[in-house]
Each structure stands twice: as structure tokens, then as C-alpha cells.
């Protein structure tokens, strides 16, 4: 027996020695560089090799202006004493930068080409790749209505316009018999109109006919144009539910209705690609070199602030927050969104950037925007949340019935079976621009506290355009003094690395010129033109319903085009175009103004006269057949757009007064939200809400001149006066000028019950008829 015991002990010693050899072999194998390895295995291997400094560097996103190639190379110098580093870079040696961004208007050159962008980004990337571990950086940019920072890019309508789009869902069969008889008995002429168009009796449920397929195609086109410039990551979409149009970011919201906003999250698979059919829902996914990582923003409740004041406080109970502002985030995560950006705003007084309950507790844990590890051995053994080999040994090493063979098998499984079954389903949470600075009031009052609060709340990557060294120093101290645990840092870095691996940056870190012709391509401009015409909402057509003005005749002797926005591409595109606050004029990018589109569309014999602000005498002397007036808001972004009066800029009111009181006129409103229009409504023959249509002005003339019908519906309530605000569909005291989801069709009955006026809108007596038809309709 003693001999047998001695032999067994010797065999166990040999097996343990073999286990050590296996572990050593694993250590020598640089798995994170091997594309044949599962992504989770590569991340685990890379994390194990990283120093604290390198990990914190991955959590930093700096602005392009800070991230010169020299700075990037300095970030990539490992173990270099600070005194050998140039004074401008003191203190950052040893840190490998995780990400770079372009803020609004930040470009390598004025009117930079796609090639210029690619060359700049590759310079930054080469700096990152020269680090000890060669971890690539990820470049991010705001692409909120196309690749809007870049000259010659296709600029799509802002989100509010896309929220107005609707699919044409005409019935292929007549009304159900019971509904037909009921409507016929109420009004024979209305019966004919009801049978003409299915959407005529969809009523409020017409929301179901919104056009998410269009935004998905826009997402795909945007991804191609962004990738054409070498950029793999976009800060889009904005899925805020704007509840007050006084908010300066309301045009970034698809609607006041959270259901409509949820539907428009279909832009995410457009940007990132469709999750493969056999994959689990909710796994962050990017489908190749023609797609980009998306970012759902701004978590959460930014559209509900008091009086619409940007970055203000959203006062709402938990049920309201979760039922109105949260659902689109759940949809985004199900669709595999790669990242989520936190809002500047507060919820009931607590800054979102410091709200651990919502960021970690709800977003990461309840909505499952989190890491999941699964280790498997044999077919019958499974352990979840087991993070390293020592955990496995603790589980099995003290079991009396584990044989020598099982121990050897277990050792081999460290490399073979266990790691192959590891899954990481995770995206990262990013701050907004200097967002953590604003945790305190005034901003930056106690920066160390802000760093601690933000990281412990669950923010993984911090947007630090200017003060990255301070952040690095403070976070390093917080970790070394055990205020912030290392596993919180590891969690953040795993999330960031997963997105980089999903993007293929470790295999293809450098951009090339293969997609440069996608920027501003004709196919994308045609798509934008389609989006423009689908986004137009016809609010009035004729001073009485028997005399509609639209569609306009192309062949007349002379027409007048007037207004500040008729020949101004910058006004037409709005904020977040080339510059953060947008621009005025036609010099900063390429596109077609509405005036240019009118000249192209009308008959060659028709004379088009443009005067921005014509006087009454000029109008009388010229005998115009009709006038097209284009007026609205100037471009703005964020806080600069907050407005308590919501009026059009001068001389808009006087143009409407001078022109519309003299000749027939159609007024096209270019704005990021409903504005005050009721005082002028009686003098206007036709009124069109065109939102912020972007570069393709021909989409407007497509509908004005009848090539396509008007199909758009209001994505938000149009108020009578600002004293009514906030006012949203479903409110107890709801008395709008034009209700949510309202929109006329050219040469047809309107689609929903609205107001009883002389503008051709169905009156209230038929509301009950329409409601019954919704119940019985098979068309929705």
C-alpha cells in the first residue's frame, strides 16, 4: 500500500508539473493578436498583460486638437521617465490613449476631402500602434444627420423630419362592410373619400405606418460615408423624447411620442448591420468595414427638462421616466447598440453622470448592457461569473473524487475547452463632452470627486477634450488608494476592448481609400431627397377646401421666390452641419438650395424672380402667378437654441404679410420644431412644415409641384402660442393649432381628425365615425 501511495504521489507531482508547463505555454502565447481566437479569449489575454496606466489610458477620449500625432506618439512611449518627455506632454508617458474624437466643426482642413480625413486618422492610429501592446485607438464623431462635419457629405433631414415620415399604406381592399355601411349612412361624400385611401381612417394609430425602413437605409448610407473618411464610431442616434419644443436640441429628437422614437431605433442596424440570425439579441455587433459602432444618447430623460432648458433638471417620477424616456434604450440594446452616452441633465436633482442607480443598476444590470462570462468544462459542468484559473482550482482542487486524469484534463482545459466557451456581451458607456466636469456646480469645482462619482456610477470612457492629464492623475490616485476598485477599471476596459475587436481594429487598424467615392455619392443624395419629400407635412392647402393651391403649376409666366431661407444652404441644414452651430450661406458644403430646386423644376419658359424681402409695390408691379416663401429659424445647437418665444427670424413676418396679402402664396417653414405661426395663418394659402431638410432641396420641390404627394405627419404637437407649453398629445388640456400626427394629402382628404376650420380639415362631427373605423379596420 505504501508503494502504491508513493507511486500515486509521484504521478500527481508529474501531473502538477505538466499543469505548470501548460500555464507557462499559455503565458507565452499572445492570444489577443490571434484573430482565430474567440474575442472573449483575446480580451481576457490582453487585460492580463495591461498595466494600470494602460488600462486608464483606454478609458480616455481626447479631442483631435489635443491628439496631434506627436501627442499620440508620446502616449505610446512606455516606461520613459517624465523628464525626457517634451514639457507639453509631461505626465502622460506610459498611457496609451483609447480614443480620439472630432467635436462639432473639428476637421483636419477647411473643406477637407475624404483622403485628408483618412490620412489624419492614420497618423493618430500609427501613434497608438507603436505602444508596447499595440492597442488601436477608436475615432469617434457626431454623425447625427449624415456625416455632418465633413465637406461634400450628404446631409439628411434632422431627426424631427425623419419622425414625420410615413410609409404609404393604402388598402388593397375596401373597408369592412360594417364600417362601410356606418360611414355611408353618416355621409355619402365622406364614404367615397374613406374608400379612396386606407390611411384616411387610420386615425391616431397611423403611428404604426411610420417609416423605420427609411431610417435604416439612412443609417447604412451614413455608415458608408463615415467609413469613407476612416472613422469607425459615431455618436448617434439621439433617442431623446422631446416634451417641450423650447429645448434647443428638440430637432435631434424624432418625436414627442416615445413609441415613434422606439421605432426609429431601426437606424442602429442600419449603422451597425443586422445581428446575425443565430446570434443572441442584445449582443453588440458591427458587421464589417462598411459599418460603424453606434451610440444611443443621451441617457436618460434629456428631452424632459423643465421648460426645455438644455442640461437642466427632468422632474418626473420613476414610472414616467421608465415608461416615456427609457423604452428606446431597451430597444437599442436589443438591437445590439455598441455604446450609450450619458446625458448632461439631471433626474429629480441628481446629475445623470453620477447616477449609479440608473447607469449601473438599470442600464447595465436590468437592461443587460453588461459583461457575461461562461466557462464550460466537460459537457455536464458549467460555472458562470468565474473570472480566472484560480477560481477553477478553488472549485475542483479540494474534491476527493478528482482523479489524476481529471486534473490533467482540467489543466489542458485552461487553454482548450474553458476559454473557448467564454462569452462577453458588452458595450461601453461614454460621458458627454466634459460631462463629468459638470457633476459639480460650478463645473470643475471638485474634480477628484467628479472622477470618482462618474467612474463609480458606471461610466467607462470619458470624453476629455482638454484636461486628460488631470483625469489620468486623479483616477490613478483613486485606484491606488483603493477608493475605486480595480475590477471597476477592468470592467470598463473589457467593454471598450470588445467594441474595438468587434470593429476589426486589431486586424485592420488603418483606414484606406477604398470607400472615398461613397462620400456625397449620388445614390445617397437620392436617398436624402426621398427622405426630404417624405418628411414634409402639409398643414394647409387653400383658404377654402374647394380651392387648393398645391400642387403648383410648373408653367406660368412668372413666379416669386422670397424669404431668408430660400437660397441659404446653411439655414436649410440647421445646426450640427460643418460647424457645431451650423452656418449661413452656400459656401461651406455642397447641395441644392430650395431656390435652386425651384429653378430646376419649373418649365424653362417660367421666369423665377428671387427677392429675399420684397415690398408690396414690387409685388403688385410684377404680376406674379404665385409666390413661394421660405422662412424659419436660424441654425443653432444645444443651449444656443433654447428659446422661450419660438419666433421666426426677421424679416419673415413682414415677408409673409407683404406677399401673402397681395398674391397667392405657399409658405415653407424651415425650423427644428414648431414655431409661432397662428398670427399669419389666415393670410397664407398653403403652409408646409419642412423641418431642417439638409442638402437636397429638390425633395421640397418634388412635393410642391406634384411629382410626389404629401405623406408626412406631425411628429409633435404644433401649439397656438408658447403660453400653452409644454403641451403634448394625451395631455388633459390639449388645444393645439395642429395636433400630433396631423398632415394633409395633396388632392385628397386629410388623414386624421383635427380642427374644424376653413383649411380643409375634417371636423369633429366625424370623430366617432373615424374611431369606430379604427377598431374594425384591417389595414393597420
UniProtKB/TrEMBL annotation:
Coiled coil: none annotated. Keywords: Glycosidase, Hydrolase, Signal. The keyword Cell cycle does not apply. GO terms for molecular function: beta-glucosidase activity. Residues 536-745 form the Glycoside hydrolase family 3 C-terminal domain. PANTHER family: GLYCOSYL HYDROLASE FAMILY PROTEIN, PERIPLASMIC BETA-GLUCOSIDASE-RELATED. This is Glycoside hydrolase family 3 N-terminal domain-containing protein. It comes from Salix brachista.
Amino acid at each position: 500500500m505504501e508503494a502504491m501511495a508513493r507511486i500515486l504521489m509521484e504521478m500527481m507531482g508529474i501531473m502538477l508539473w505538466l499543469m505548470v508547463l501548460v500555464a507557462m505555454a499559455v503565458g507565452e502565447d499572445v492570444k489577443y493578436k490571434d484573430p482565430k481566437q474567440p474575442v472573449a479569449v483575446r480580451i481576457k489575454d490582453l487585460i492580463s498583460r495591461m498595466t494600470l496606466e494602460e488600462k486608464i489610458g483606454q478609458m480616455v477620449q481626447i479631442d483631435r486638437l489635443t491628439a496631434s500625432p506627436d501627442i499620440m506618439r508620446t502616449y505610446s512611449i512606455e516606461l520613459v521617465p517624465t523628464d525626457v518627455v517634451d514639457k507639453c506632454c509631461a505626465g502622460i508617458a506610459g498611457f496609451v490613449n483609447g480614443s480620439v474624437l472630432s467635436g462639432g466643426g473639428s476637421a483636419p482642413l477647411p473643406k477637407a476631402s475624404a483622403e485628408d480625413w483618412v490620412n489624419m486618422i492614420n497618423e493618430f492610429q500609427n501613434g497608438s500602434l507603436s505602444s508596447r501592446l499595440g492597442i488601436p485607438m477608436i475615432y469617434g464623431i457626431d454623425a447625427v444627420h449624415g456625416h455632418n462635419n465633413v465637406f461634400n457629405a450628404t446631409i439628411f433631414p434632422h431627426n424631427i423630419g425623419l419622425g414625420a415620415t410615413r410609409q404609404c399604406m393604402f388598402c388593397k381592399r375596401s373597408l369592412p362592410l360594417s364600417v362601410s355601411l356606418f360611414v355611408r349612412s353618416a355621409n355619402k361624400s365622406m364614404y367615397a373619400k374613406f374608400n379612396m385611401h386606407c390611411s384616411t381612417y387610420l386615425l391616431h394609430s397611423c403611428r404604426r405606418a411610420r417609416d423605420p425602413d427609411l431610417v435604416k437605409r439612412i443609417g447604412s448610407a451614413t455608415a458608408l460615408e463615415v467609413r469613407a473618411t476612416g472613422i469607425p464610431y459615431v455618436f448617434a442616434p439621439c433617442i431623446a423624447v422631446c416634451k417641450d419644443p423650447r429645448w434647443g436640441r428638440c430637432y435631434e429628437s424624432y418625436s414627442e411620442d416615445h413609441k415613434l422614437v422606439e421605432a426609429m431605433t431601426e437606424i442602429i442596424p442600419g449603422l451597425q448591420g443586422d445581428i446575425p440570425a443565430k446570434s443572441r439579441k442584445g449582443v453588440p455587433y458591427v458587421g464589417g468595414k462598411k459599418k460603424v459602432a453606434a451610440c444611443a444618447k443621451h441617457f436618460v430623460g434629456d428631452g424632459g427638462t423643465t421648460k426645455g432648458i438644455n442640461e437642466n433638471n427632468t422632474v418626473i417620477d420613476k414610472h414616467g421616466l421608465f415608461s416615456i424616456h427609457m423604452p428606446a434604450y431597451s430597444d437599442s440594446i436589443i438591437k445590439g447598440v455598441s455604446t450609450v452616452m450619458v446625458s448632461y441633465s439631471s433626474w429629480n436633482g441628481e446629475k445623470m453622470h453620477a447616477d449609479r442607480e440608473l447607469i449601473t443598476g438599470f442600464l447595465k444590470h436590468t437592461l443587460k448592457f453588461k459583461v457575461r462570462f461562461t466557462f464550460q468544462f466537460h459537457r455536464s459542468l458549467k460555472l458562470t461569473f468565474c473570472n480566472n484559473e484560480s477560481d477553477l482550482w478553488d472549485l475542483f482542487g479540494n474534491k476527493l473524487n478528482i482523479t489524476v486524469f481529471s486534473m490533467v484534463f482540467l489543466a489542458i482545459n485552461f487553454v482548450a475547452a474553458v476559454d473557448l466557451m467564454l462569452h462577453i456581451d458588452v458595450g461601453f458607456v461614454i460621458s458627454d463632452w466634459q460631462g463629468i466636469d459638470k457633476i459639480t456646480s460650478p463645473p470643475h469645482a471638485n474634480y477628484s470627486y467628479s472622477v470618482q462619482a462618474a467612474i463609480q456610477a458606471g461610466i467607462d470612457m470619458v470624453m476629455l477634450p482638454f484636461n486628460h492629464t488631470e483625469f489620468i492623475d486623479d483616477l490613478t490616485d483613486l485606484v491606488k488608494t483603493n477608493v475605486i476598485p480595480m475590477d471597476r477599471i477592468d470592467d470598463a476596459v473589457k467593454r471598450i476592448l470588445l467594441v474595438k475587436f468587434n470593429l476589426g481594429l486589431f486586424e485592420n487598424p488603418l483606414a484606406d481609400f477604398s470607400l472615398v467615392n461613397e462620400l456625397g455619392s449620388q445614390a445617397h443624395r437620392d436617398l436624402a431627397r426621398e427622405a426630404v419629400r417624405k418628411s414634409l407635412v402639409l398643414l394647409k392647402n387653400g383658404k377654402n377646401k374647394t380651392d387648393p393651391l398645391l400642387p403648383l403649376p410648373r408653367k406660368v409666366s412668372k413666379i416669386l421666390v422670397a424669404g431668408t431661407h430660400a437660397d441659404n444652404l446653411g439655414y436649410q441644414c440647421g445646426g450640427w452641419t460643418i460647424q457645431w452651430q451650423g452656418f449661413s450661406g452656400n459656401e461651406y458644403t455642397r447641395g441644392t438650395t430650395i431656390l435652386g430646386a425651384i429653378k430646376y423644376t419649373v418649365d424653362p419658359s417660367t421666369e423665377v424672380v428671387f427677392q429675399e424681402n420684397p415690398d408690396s409695390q414690387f409685388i403688385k408691379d410684377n404680376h406674379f402667378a404665385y409666390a413661394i416663401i421660405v422662412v424659419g429659424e436660424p441654425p443653432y445647437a444645444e443651449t444656443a437654441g433654447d428659446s422661450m418665444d419660438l419666433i421666426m427670424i426677421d424679416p419673415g413676418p413682414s415677408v409673409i404679410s407683404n406677399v401673402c396679402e397681395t398674391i397667392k402664396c405657399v409658405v415653407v417653414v424651415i425650423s427644428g420644431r414648431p414655431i409661432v405661426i397662428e398670427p399669419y395663418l389666415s393670410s397664407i394659402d398653403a403652409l408646409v412644415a419642412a423641418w431642417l431638410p439638409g442638402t437636397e432641396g429638390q425633395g421640397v420641390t418634388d412635393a410642391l409641384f406634384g411629382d410626389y404627394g404629401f405623406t408626412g405627419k406631425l411628429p409633435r404637437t404644433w401649439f397656438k402660442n408658447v403660453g400653452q407649453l409644454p403641451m403634448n398629445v394625451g395631455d388633459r388640456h390639449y388645444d393645439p393649432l395642429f395636433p400630433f400626427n396631423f398632415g394633409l394629402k395633396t388632392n385628397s382628404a386629410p388623414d386624421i381628425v383635427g380642427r374644424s376650420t376653413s383649411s380643409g380639415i375634417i371636423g369633429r362631427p366625424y370623430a366617432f365615425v373615424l374611431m369606430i373605423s379604427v377598431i374594425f379596420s384591417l389595414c393597420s
